[in-house]
Amino acid sequence: MDKFIDILKKNLDKNIWSDNKEEIEKYLIEPRGNFKGHSSLLLKPRNTNEVSKIVRFCNRYKLPLVPQGGRTGLTGGTMPSSKGNEILISMEKMNKIISIDPDNFLMTVQAGCVLTEIKKVSEKKNLYFPIKLASESRCTIGGNISTNAGGTSVLKYGMTRDLGSISLKQPASAEQVSSQIQLVINCQVPSAV
Ligand SMILES: Cc1cc2nc3c(=O)[nH]c(=O)nc-3n(C[C@H](O)[C@H](O)[C@H](O)COP(=O)(O)OP(=O)(O)OC[C@H]3O[C@@H](n4cnc5c(N)ncnc54)[C@H](O)[C@@H]3O)c2cc1C
């Protein structure tokens, strides 16, 4: 495994990976202390191309990847195994709103975009994105879709995936993680808020 990790590092821009133990340790903190994992590599891709490259490589050599959004999930989903054989892939650099199309109630955002940002930008355009969570200042849209988050508006608007028009822009032959990287979300003004 170490051999493949070395090849992966050589193939990636130095700015998007770290094997520094102290830095990685911060990504292994679980808020309630219920889970403890280990990893020797942290990846922070900046765009879909980098994610595709990483996922293709890891798929070929069967290297397990653990995606991390805002790490607000409380069930250990972002925690790698204690064996230390899983690679962390944080979406924190993929936090951009790419475009907003108010006429069609659409936004295109990167998967690491923080929920509050999406809501703020929608509101500026007189639109409304209905997912509402106490963790919204840290959680990301990729994490919301992955966990199918509910939140305090769930009875009125449904779970994240029930919103219906969240469509994932899928680059050709993309694997599961990269398919969640650039997505188009619906942000329609509700009839009554
Ligand atoms: C105070 C508080 C209140 C909360 N309230 C609610 C609530 O009302 N309803 C609710 O449903 N949840 C709630 N949560 C849980 C959590 O905030 C949500 O599940 C949120 O959607 C997680 O988003 P995240 O970006 O933090 O994901 P993370 O915690 O980083 O990840 C969660 C899971 O998604 C995966 N993942 C993350 N990003 C991606 C990606 N880009 N591609 C593929 N997989 C990915 C991770 O591997 C992990 O398995 C709450 C949490 C807190 C701390």
Largest sheet: 4 strands, mixed
Number of strands: 8
The overall pLDDT average reads 85
CATH uppermost class of the largest domain: Alpha Beta
- Multimeric organization: single chain
Number of helices: 6
Strand-pairing-aware structural class: alpha/beta
Strand content: 15-25%
The third-level CATH topology of the largest domain is Uridine Diphospho-n-acetylenolpyruvylglucosamine Reductase, domain 3
Low-confidence segments, given as residue ranges, are: 167-182
Rg over CA atoms, rounded to whole Å, is 17 Å
CATH architecture of the largest domain: 2-Layer Sandwich
- Compounds present? flavin-adenine dinucleotide
Task: Estimate nothing, just give the exact number of structural domains.
Answer: 2
Q: What pattern of helices and strands is seen along the backbone?
A: HEHEHEEEEHHHEE
Shape: globular
Précis, in short:
With 193 residues, the chain is of the alpha/beta class. It has helices at 2-11, 21-26, 48-60, 115-124, 141-147, 154-157; strands spanning 17-18, 42-43, 65-68, 87-90, 97-101, 106-110, 167-169, 182-186.
Describe this protein's structure.
The protein is of the alpha/beta class and 193 residues long. The chain folds into 2 domains: 2-90, Uridine Diphospho-n-acetylenolpyruvylglucosamine Reductase, domain 2 (2-Layer Sandwich), CATH 3.30.43; 97-192, Uridine Diphospho-n-acetylenolpyruvylglucosamine Reductase, domain 3 (2-Layer Sandwich). It is built from 6 helices and 8 strands; from the N terminus they run αβαβαββββαααββ. It has helices at residues 2-11, 21-26, 48-60, 115-124, 141-147, 154-157, and strands at residues 17-18, 42-43, 65-68, 87-90, 97-101, 106-110, 167-169, 182-186. Strands 1-2-4-3 form a 4-stranded mixed β-sheet. Strands 5-6-8-7 form a 4-stranded antiparallel β-sheet, covered by helices on one side. A hairpin with a 4-residue loop joins strand 5 and strand 6. The structure holds flavin-adenine dinucleotide.
